[in-house]
Predict the 3D structure of the following.
Amino acid sequence: GQNIDQPTEMTATEGAIVQINCTYQTSGFNGLFWYQQHAGEAPTFLSYNVLDGLEEKGRFSSFLSRSKGYSYLLLKELQMKDSASYLCAGRTTDSWGKLQFGAGTQVVVTP
Amino acid sequence: GAVVSQHPSRVICKSGTSVKIECRSLDFQATTMFWYRQFPKQSLMLMATSNEGSKATYEQGVEKDKFLINHASLTLSTLTVTSAHPEDSSFYICSLLSTTEAFFGQGTRLTVV
């Protein structure tokens, strides 16, 4: 299958920086999404990388290396409200371009 | 504003009954919508791809006779969980894709008792 791997859980303190890594099989995907999901809620769009490099949006940045099948989401100046699950999702190359999600990384922000 | 509207947000039903979940595209015509299921502390698992005017395409392991999908118009897809069992209790969520983003409905928390 087309695997997407990310760590299960990460803990960091308020104000710190956390980097969530995501690796995927390079064949079968063209584009990588990051979503934030609070428990019981729908996912919220954070970023979409289709080209190599870093994209910055305020406190959140996302990086993609297509040749390495690697992406990361960087969260800066962590706030308590950033405690959530962060989902890495690859856009498949089939006719629909459907998304395949990783298992999600639960980020816990402590005071 | 919301791009996708999903109803109901929560439903409790008895075992053996059927439940219909609606997903509406508000801002643009969607020939394709996606249905996901999410169990507690797990990720979103794609169940099926809903195609307007044709049969849905189901992922491996998803029973098409149990999870009926109808996509009769460009703005509405429905998922019906038939003969529901407690193990069908889950968070069901629909999605549609633009070129650069996937939009999600609010999700439906189904509890089968």
About this structure: Chain A touches chain B through 21 residues (CB under 8 Å). The first strand of chain A starts at residue 4 and ends at 5. The mean pLDDT of chain A is 92. The radius of gyration of chain A is 13 Å.
